[in-house]
Amino acid sequence: MFERLKSFFHHRAAPAKPLHELDAAHAMGALLVKVAIADHTYLFEEVEQIDRILAEAYNLKPLQAAKMRAECERLAFEMPGIEEMAARIRDGVDYEHRRAAVEAMWKLAEIDGISDADETALVELIEDHLGLERTDSKEARASAVIP
Q1: Sign of CA dihedral 63, 65, 68, 69
Q2: Is the pLDDT assigned to residue 147 strictly greater than 80?
Q3: Distance between CA atoms of 26 and 137, rounded to whole angstroms?
Q4: What pTM, to 2 d.p., does this model score?
Q5: pLDDT, tens digit, for every residue of 48-67?
Q6: What φ, ψ does residue 38 adopt, rounded to 5°?
Q7: Is the N or the C terminus of the chain less surrounded, counting Cβ atoms within 10 Å?
Q8: What burial class does residue 120 get, using C-beta atoms within 10 Å of its C-beta: 0-12 exposed, 13-18 middle, 19+ buried?
Q9: Under a CB-based contact definition with an 8 Å cutoff, are residues 39 and 123 in contact?
Q10: Buried b (16+ CB within 10 A) or exposed e, 4-16
Q11: Would you list the DSSP string of the chain?
Q12: pLDDT score at 145
């Protein structure tokens, strides 16, 4: 009986599910998560906004978007650098869609009504890695600002 009890406490956890392949869509989702958590909070409004962005961008139903966001959260936490994620988007998405992605990131950064220097710096860095021209970056940000 002691051996059974001992084995209960030494039960091994199930192996972690492998990360989803980093395609442009999942890279976009992971960058959205990184933007949302840049201010050290991850509010329900941000989660909901990410789900809406993913659903609209990839024609997903709400449950599919939530599942994709969960995969992207894991990618965001387990892949610390943004350079590779931005490169996947830059290489796999045309310029106009990259501009739209940046606008979505600005909307996400503004959704909580708090302007945060870390979020701003991160979105600006992502813009640079995505190869957006400065005028397009400014227009994307202006379009995203919630009145």
Answers
A1: negative
A2: no
A3: 22
A4: 0.83
A5: 999 999 999 999 999 999 99
A6: -60, -30
A7: C
A8: middle
A9: no
A10: eeeeeeeeeeeee
A11: -HHHHHHHHTPPPPPPPPPPP--HHHHHHHHHHHHHHTTS---HHHHHHHHHHHHHHHT--HHHHHHHHHHHHHHHHH---SHHHHHHHHHHS-HHHHHHHHHHHHHHHHTTS---HHHHHHHHHHHHHHT--HHHHHHHHHHH---
A12: 76
Picking from 27, 31, 29, the residue whose alpha carbon sits closest to that of residue 125 is 31
| Structure confidence by residue, pLDDT tens digits, 37-47 | 998 889 999 99
Separation CA 54–CA 143 (nearest Å)? 19
Residue 12 in contact with residue 63, Cβ under 8 Å? no
The pair of structure tokens assigned to 85 is: 């994620």
Residue 13's pLDDT is 46
User: Residue 140 to residues 54, 62, 101: CA-CA distances in angstroms?
Assistant: 18, 25, 9
Lookup: tokens for 87: 């490169």
Residue 93 CA: distances (Å) to CA of 41, 87, 108? 29, 10, 20
Whole-Å CA distances, 39 to 17, 36, 105, 125, 147: 28, 7, 13, 15, 21
